[in-house]
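Example 364, ligand magnesium ion.
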Amino acid sequence: MRVTLSVIKADVGGYVGHSSSHPEVLSKAEECLKPSRDNGLLIDFCVTRCGDDLELIMTHQQGEDDERIHKLAWDTFVECTAVAKRLKLHGAGQDLLADAFSGTIKGMGPGVAEMQFEEREAETIIVLMADKTSSGAWNLPLYKMFADPFNTIGLVIAPNMHSGFSFEVHDVKEHKKIVFSAPEEIYDMLIFLGSPSRYAAKAVHHRETNEIAAVSSTQRLSLIAGRYVGKDDPVCVVRSQGQFPAVGEILEPFTMPQLVEGWMRGSHHGPLMPVATHQSNPSRFDGPPRVTCLGFQLNEGKLVGPRDMFDDPAFDEARRMAGEVADYMRRHGPFEPHRLPLEGMEYTTMPGVMKRLEGRFIDF
Ligand code: F6R
Ligand code: MG
Ligand code: MG
């Protein structure tokens, strides 16, 4: 059976500040999606959150980029925004950048990760969600999962993974894409993936079968809006087991709390802390950035789950390390590399300050 998995997300209002989501917003989303499961447009859905981001995980048979599915998500975010406004939550509707829906939700603010595939005998699906960071945050973990034999032993010893994976990399500024084959082209690929503010891994395919293995949301909100409107807070879907990395090979990269862009005012580097959903309430200096993970088995498109994958003491050490890195980075205060370089900051006073001090700069 061919199934499409669509994960569409938006920040429609924070509670309290940008730290978390209000339960009434989540229950409104449930209420909005239920009729579409009853009438068959959706096979199933799961509403969840990561920090202040509302995530709609949906299965159906309409394919990717389907207008009705995208409109359903858009209408749900609009309804949830109304709840956020009624409760006077912070930044109500902040990610809805367009006034009206027009065919696709892409480019309208919400993040989208969709994949269509033939459901396997056992279809294990991992959904990763992040808050207080941007889409390039998946570059390092996706590289480790699908190209690094020190992370994924399956690349070395599993015959059905041994031929490697291909990576579709997007230049989010120039709107160009390129496909690299791993392992042969990893040195070329890493010059791009290692610069996640501009290049983002969008999709990964199994090279032998060309089956989709992973897909992420790669939009840059600030580039769409032309101004600061909040961080992308991206999502990523990964198929697991068999010819794809095992669950433990997908989660392993998150034992190292990598430094990502985001955190306070979207203008800092900070460690990405893996947490259970109930712990995804970034409050310390509005962070540190979080990643949550829900796992499912698909049964004829029905979502059997979720299991909260980082709700495991085995990730305590990564959380502790993230706390330590957060302390260390915070001690830099307004200095780089804690603060992002001038061109990367989402908030800045530089143009105004520069203009005011123009006359005081003299040659030396
Ligand atoms: C970062 C984030 C927060 C806000 C900060 C100021 O992605 O969402 O750190 O940037 O709380 O928020 P405003 O400008 O809405 O008061
Ligand atoms: Mg927010
Ligand atoms: Mg957010």
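Summary: The first helix runs from residue 23 to 38.
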